[in-house]
Amino acid sequence: MEMMTALAVGGGGSLLLFAIVLCGDMECCERGPLGRLLNLLTSFLDFWTSEKFLKIVEKVLGRRCVDRVTAIQDYVCFQRNPILPAMYLVLVAVGFTVFVSFAFPYLPYHAEKDWGISFYHKINAFLIVGGCLVVFWANLSVDPGVITPENVEREKKGKLQQKQEKGAGEQENWAVGETIVSTDVKFAEVRL
């Protein structure tokens, strides 16, 4: 029973963090408890990366420790590192292990009835996890690049050239994040 309690607490905490991060910014939630928890979380993260935190660390632990903390912050937040991919692989592995441990003994479940769960759910589980890992590897092996005003300008010019080759009779609009980019031949503007 201790395992089930640990899973319930961990799952509940994960769902709460998920809800805080995804819903805390929404208009309907920003003044409620999720918005307050998001503000608390982001203020903690802002403090952890602030000069005030580094001054406190320097007074308590010395300059060498500040240099190490700064190096860790730089590595974790601003450089490519294997931390997030490793966390994803751990989550997939633990989730699949829990599913296999607790759900596989019950499959098939009343497969002969209309509402039953058939045997192929075992096969589907392996296919879904395999597909997740293939997509993960494909995304991990591609360099996403950095979005800069120059990249947007180059993309805009490429779209304009395609539009001129097609013909100037029609206008096409496409969105980049919250920025609307017009590819009309006579007018093209990117607001950053």
Automatic annotation (TrEMBL):
Statement: the UniProt record of this protein carries the keyword Transmembrane: yes
UniProt signal peptide: 1-23
Keyword annotations of the record: Membrane, Signal, Transmembrane, Transmembrane helix
Transmembrane segments: 86-107, 119-140
Record-given protein name: Uncharacterized protein
Organism: Guillardia theta (strain CCMP2712) (Cryptophyte)
